């Protein structure tokens, strides 16, 4: 017995020594096995990058939501006085079916199947994700055992239907490990999916067998890295103006499609872009089979708006004679007759009148004087038949119809040749910007929110000038006459308080099988314009496809209602004051950074600019607008200094100026509403700090008028003095 037990003890001791010396047992490394058993890892979610407008206003961002899980193992309730698992699948399913997108039968089947498989817990797939705080609280109020919630992130588009085909959307996709993360499916969300996607972090720690953190155990934290933030050139306020105007036209005329884009002619920045039909990105409601961004990916025959560039070529070549006459009505070439839109014409008229009346025949005569090859070169110089280079993919080029003499003539008035809306806007920048053609762009910058480093910064790009400044000025004046002349086709595009210029278009729409649709409800109606004429701040291009018109309505009714509404509201928002427009002149901003604050204020005001000072002392640390940029006389310039900040009287300020002031001052200003400031929580002249809460309430002119009318009505029964 002694020898037997002694031998066994010797073998056991040898085994201990071997394991201690080698660290292995049965071919397994014990330290690795222990690490696996007692190590725990918790994933730290990374936020998808934000998409914001030029002022930092949110267009797309991640927001807090919840994921629902059902704990179904009875082990969860062991040694607990509270039931922590689902014991009644039928009742649980009955309650949950009221809140999530699953039927009672589907939930019951899922729970019972998982219980039979002896799973510890089960998720509800797509139906159990992206649950709002409100719904979560309502489910919790039913006190269902075993139903728990985990914090999650959901992609939110707070503006709803807002440049939807441009922004696109992201949806969560399940990965092989069962987790889900948002993936861009359309628009900028798809194009910049890699940049927007963050890198998850993790927390590693040692635990006991039940998963609890061991005392004095170290935690290893790898921070999550959020996705990059994309700053657009879009202006949320101007985009909202456009969306509202398009909704009104859609409801009134029920067209097949509407496309519109607004740009800054001096920089090429796209300020607004939209199309109809559109959709709600949060729910994808209204999303059709057309996923194209029509401003850049869809080609159209532009119609008479293209005459702008034919006119510019004629003036630049020195063959434009506005007072010379020609016989309108028809123009014969081979076996083809080019006709004016009223067929019989207006007799012998001047070329200026012909342009104002949108005569096709006048373009045919002009082509003879310009020369076909020369005209083709101008088309190329204006960027047609080639990509503009806008920072969006899948840009179409269009086709210039110049196979024969007839096609070259029809091109002069925009028929047969195809273009994209963005090409038309790019060409128009040369007219509005003294001959300088600007490349359009939509991405302002891309910023790493983890370091605040600018990863990509777009610079304004000027292309080769197709025409001189003198030619551009003449074209502007002629385009303005189409609005102001009694013979002009653009009279309906006259604005209240502002000058406007542009060209109407009525184009035939090609059928899928060949040929063209015909009829007043089967045309593409468009307008390419700018305002104000003296110093254009906006280019607006509107197209309405096949609207339903009443007998008393014309195609210009559809486009003018959109153009006029969005242009007038946008100019007011940009602080272009109608009453001072005739006196307005362009001023190149001097550089006053580093100069004495008060002296700089006097210097700028002497040049006809209004100044807003942030801080009362020392030198100018920052200015807006920046040096060498253009400002309009009587517009506002912001100067940031040091010291106490005296709050201005914000009444009448636009939201844009409030955003600029907030950004420069770093004050916690809460902005409520849209339009112009109507109320502020602190009176002008108050001394404020970074901790002072400030609220400004904005209202549109219509809201102010309605409030005043309601107040007047409420006072009609009051006793009079």
UniProtKB/TrEMBL annotation:
<dbReference type="InterPro" id="IPR012338">
    <property type="entry name" value="Beta-lactam/transpept-like"/>
</dbReference>
<dbReference type="Pfam" id="PF03717">
    <property type="entry name" value="PBP_dimer"/>
</dbReference>
<feature type="domain" description="PASTA">
    <location>
        <begin position="641"/>
        <end position="700"/>
    </location>
</feature>
<dbReference type="InterPro" id="IPR050515">
    <property type="entry name" value="Beta-lactam/transpept"/>
</dbReference>
<protein>
    <recommendedName>
        <fullName>serine-type D-Ala-D-Ala carboxypeptidase</fullName>
        <ecNumber>3.4.16.4</ecNumber>
    </recommendedName>
</protein>
<dbReference type="InterPro" id="IPR001460">
    <property type="entry name" value="PCN-bd_Tpept"/>
</dbReference>
<dbReference type="InterPro" id="IPR036138">
    <property type="entry name" value="PBP_dimer_sf"/>
</dbReference>
<dbReference type="Pfam" id="PF03793">
    <property type="entry name" value="PASTA"/>
</dbReference>
<keyword id="KW-0472">Membrane</keyword>
<comment type="pathway">
    <text>Cell wall biogenesis; peptidoglycan biosynthesis.</text>
</comment>
<dbReference type="GO" id="GO:0071555">
    <property type="term" value="P:cell wall organization"/>
</dbReference>
<dbReference type="GO" id="GO:0005886">
    <property type="term" value="C:plasma membrane"/>
</dbReference>
<dbReference type="GO" id="GO:0008658">
    <property type="term" value="F:penicillin binding"/>
</dbReference>
<dbReference type="GO" id="GO:0009002">
    <property type="term" value="F:serine-type D-Ala-D-Ala carboxypeptidase activity"/>
</dbReference>
<comment type="similarity">
    <text>Belongs to the transpeptidase family.</text>
</comment>
<dbReference type="Pfam" id="PF00905">
    <property type="entry name" value="Transpeptidase"/>
</dbReference>
<dbReference type="InterPro" id="IPR005543">
    <property type="entry name" value="PASTA_dom"/>
</dbReference>
<dbReference type="GO" id="GO:0009252">
    <property type="term" value="P:peptidoglycan biosynthetic process"/>
</dbReference>
<dbReference type="InterPro" id="IPR005311">
    <property type="entry name" value="PBP_dimer"/>
</dbReference>
């Amino acid at each position: 017995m002694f020898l037997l037990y002694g031998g066994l003890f010797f073998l056991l001791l040898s085994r201990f020594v071997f394991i201690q010396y080698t660290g292995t047992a049965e071919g397994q490394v014990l330290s690795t096995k222990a690490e696996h058993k007692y190590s725990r890892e918790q994933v730290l979610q990374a936020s998808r990058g934000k998409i914001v407008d030029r002022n930092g206003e949110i267009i797309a961002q991640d927001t807090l939501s919840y994921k629902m899980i059902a704990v179904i193992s009875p082990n969860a309730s062991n040694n607990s006085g509270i039931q922590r698992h689902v014991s009644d699948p039928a009742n649980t399913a009955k309650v949950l079916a009221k809140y999530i997108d699953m039927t009672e039968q589907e939930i019951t089947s899922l729970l019972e199947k998982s219980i039979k498989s002896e799973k510890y817990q089960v998720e509800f797939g797509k139906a159990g994700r992206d649950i709002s705080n409100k719904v979560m609280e309502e489910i919790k109020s039913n006190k269902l055992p075993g139903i728990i919630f985990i914090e999650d992130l959901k992609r939110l588009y707070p503006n709803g239907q807002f440049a939807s085909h441009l922004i696109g959307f992201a949806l969560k996709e399940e990965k092989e490990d069962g987790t889900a993360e948002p993936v861009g499916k359309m628009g900028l969300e798809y194009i910049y999916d890699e940049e927007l996607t963050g890198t998850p972090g993790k927390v590693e720690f040692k635990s006991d067998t039940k998963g609890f953190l061991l005392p004095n155990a170290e935690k290893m934290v790898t921070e999550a890295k959020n996705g990059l933030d994309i700053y657009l050139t879009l202006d949320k306020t101007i985009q909202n103006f456009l969306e509202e105007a398009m909704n009104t036209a859609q409801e009134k005329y029920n067209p097949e499609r509407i496309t519109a884009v607004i740009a800054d002619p001096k920089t090429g920045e796209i300020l607004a872009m939209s199309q109809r039909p559109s959709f709600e990105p949060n729910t994808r409601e209204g999303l059709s089979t057309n996923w194209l961004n029509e401003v850049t990916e869809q080609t159209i025959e532009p119609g008479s708006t293209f005459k702008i560039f034919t006119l510019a070529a004629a003036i630049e070549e020195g063959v434009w004679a506005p007072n010379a006459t020609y016989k309108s009505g028809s123009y014969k070439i081979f076996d083809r007759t080019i006709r004016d839109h009223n067929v019989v014409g207006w007799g012998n008229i001047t070329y200026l009148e012909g342009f104002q009346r949108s005569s096709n025949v006048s373009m045919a005569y002009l082509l003879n004087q310009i020369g076909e090859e020369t005209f083709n070169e101008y088309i190329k110089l204006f960027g047609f038949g080639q990509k503009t280079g806008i920072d969006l993919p899948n840009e179409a080029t269009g086709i210039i119809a110049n196979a024969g003499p007839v096609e070259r003539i029809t091109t002069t008035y925009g028929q047969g040749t195809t273009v994209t809306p963005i090409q038309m806007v790019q060409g128009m920048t040369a007219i509005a910007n003294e001959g300088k053609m600007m490349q359009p762009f939509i991405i302002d910058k891309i910023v790493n929110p983890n370091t605040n480093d600018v990863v990509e910064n777009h610079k304004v790009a000027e292309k080769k000038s197709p025409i001189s400044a003198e030619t551009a000025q003449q074209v502007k004046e002629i385009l303005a006459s189409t609005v102001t002349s009694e013979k002009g086709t653009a009279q309906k595009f006259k604005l209240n308080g502002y000058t406007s210029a542009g060209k109407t278009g009525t184009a035939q729409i090609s059928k899928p099988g060949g040929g063209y649709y015909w009829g007043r409800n089967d045309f593409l109606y468009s307008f390419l314009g700018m305002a104000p004429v003296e110093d254009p701040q906006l280019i607006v291009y509107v197209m309405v496809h096949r609207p339903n018109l009443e007998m008393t309505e014309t195609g210009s009714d559809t486009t003018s209602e959109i153009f006029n509404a969005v242009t007038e509201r946008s100019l007011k928002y940009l602080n272009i004051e109608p009453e001072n427009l005739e006196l307005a002149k362009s001023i190149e901003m001097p550089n006053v950074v580093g100069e004495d604050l008060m002296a700089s204020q006097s210097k700028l005001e002497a040049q006809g600019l209004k100044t807003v000072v942030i801080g009362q002392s020392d030198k100018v640390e920052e200015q807006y607008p920046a040096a060498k940029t253009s400002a309009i006389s009587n517009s506002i310039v912001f100067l940031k200094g040091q010291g106490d900040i005296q709050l201005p009287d914000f009444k009448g300020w636009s939201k844009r100026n409030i955003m600029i002031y907030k950004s420069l001052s770093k004050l916690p200003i809460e902005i409520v509403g849209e339009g112009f400031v109507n109320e502020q929580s602190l009176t002008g002249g108050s001394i404020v700090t970074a901790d002072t809460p400030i609220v400004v309430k904005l209202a549109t002119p219509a809201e102010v008028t309605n409030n005043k009318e309601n107040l007047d009505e409420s006072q009609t029964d009051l006793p009079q003095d």
